Amino acid sequence: MGKGGMSRGEGSKVEEENMAAWLVGLNTLKIQPFLLPSVGPHDVRVRMKAVGICGSDVHYLKTMRCADFVVKEPMVIGHECAGIIEEVGEEVKHLVVGDRVALEPGISCWRCNLCREGRYNLCPEMKFFATPPVHGSLANQVVHPADLCFKLPENVSLEEGAMCEPLSVGVHACRRAEVGPETNVLVMGAGPIGLVTMLAARAFGVPRIVIVDVDENRLSVAKQLGAHGIVQVTTNLEDVGSEVEQIQKAMGSNIDVTFDCAGFNKTMSTALAATRCGGKVCLVGMGHGVMTVPLTPAAAREVDVVGVFRYKNTWPLCLEFLTSGKIDVKPLITHRFGFSQKEVEDAFETSARGSNAIKVMFNL
Q: Judging by beta carbons within 10 Å of its beta carbon (0-12, 13-18, 19+), is residue 219 exposed, middle or buried?
């Protein structure tokens, strides 16, 4: 079940009973005991202090699946997290009890060709928090490899540490698209991932960013966070042509890179049409598992399509951006909850409703 822990009867208890938020059925979360494995020589035991809710967590709650991953048995939810070290394995030298850390949630095999090439995010044996059948981190404590726990600088809070996970998606996307000071960027979608991608692009030196969404409130937030232009669109495919004109006008120059942080037929069609000849479209969101989009016209204009899946080697750069002040993720945290049964249920409903909620955070 991965390092995180196991269900009752598979391991030995630590001194106090460890509790976690279990997804036990459709729209059903229960706080129940969560037994931890012993701490191995290269592991640490971490008391969770901040855990964010991701869109994938909500998908699992509402449908018991996310893309091709299906929940077939009870599973602890959550993967955006930070906490305090309570126990270290005998071979761990870079962390001590009391250190505040952000956790990278995926454990790769380090043996396959992809891992050996450095693209460990694509490892077929990846064990990722709250991706079936691996348990997540919305718990009092978890056990995790020490190499995937990153010490937080003094001026970075535990909540900001937990935000390194969604921010990593944006940082990895910017690396994949090779954005920089000469790249004008369009972001499709002003949800949490769209906003962190925008913040990452700014930190990479992008001179102009336009962001697009159907929701006026989220566009207002994007503007406050530094978007140079915002465009409100519809969900109608028939509007793509006119909206592309609006988007290009808002940019005021060529669109070099577009990040589709929604992943729908319409957003991808818009991205392909709006991006300049020879530009790039980076597919970050996965709203539709299968899309029908106008690839032939895009190919005739040599618009490259780049895929993004999770991230690799991003935590050190995320922490540098947070420490230096180049990125401020605090305004994204709009709602906070404790760790009672009622608060867990309320937090997930708040996140699922969307509206004015961007990032919902648990303080344990």
A: buried
Cα–Cα distance for residue pair 324/316, rounded to 1 Å: 12
pLDDT in tens, 228-248: 999 999 999 999 999 999 999
Model confidence at 98: pLDDT above 80:
yes
Buried b (16+ CB within 10 A) or exposed e, 137-166: bbbbbbbbbbebbbebeeebbbbbbbbbbb
Can you tell me the mean pLDDT for 218-229? Answer: 96
**Cα dist. 187→262, 320, 334, 340 in Å?**
9, 23, 21, 36
Cβ-based neighbour number of residue 296 at 10 Å: 7
- Going by pLDDT thresholds of 50, 70 and 90, the confidence category of residue 8 is very low
Distances (CA, A) of 65 to 217, 260, 264, 308, 339: 29, 22, 18, 20, 24
Residue 324 lies in a domain: no
- Each residue's pLDDT tens digit, 332-363: 999 999 999 999 999 999 999 877 899 999 99
- With CA atoms as reference, report the closest residue to 274 among 289, 292, 260: 260
| Same-domain status, 196 and 301 | yes
> Quick one: 293 and 343 in the same domain?
no
pLDDT digits (tens, 9 = 90+) for 26-60: 999 999 999 999 999 999 999 999 999 999 999 99
Sheet holding 28-33, edge to edge: 28-33, 19-25, 75-76
Give yes or no: residues 201 and 287 share one domain.
Answer: yes
Give CB contacts under 8 A, 24+ apart, made by 9-17: 9/35, 10/35, 11/35, 11/36, 11/37, 11/38, 12/38, 14/45, 14/141, 16/140
> 3-class secondary structure for 24-35?
EECCEEEEEECE
Indicate whether 12 belongs to any domain: no
Range of the domain at 57: 19-151+329-363
Q: How many domains does the chain have?
A: 2
Torsion of CA 171, 317, 356, 222, to 10 degrees: -60
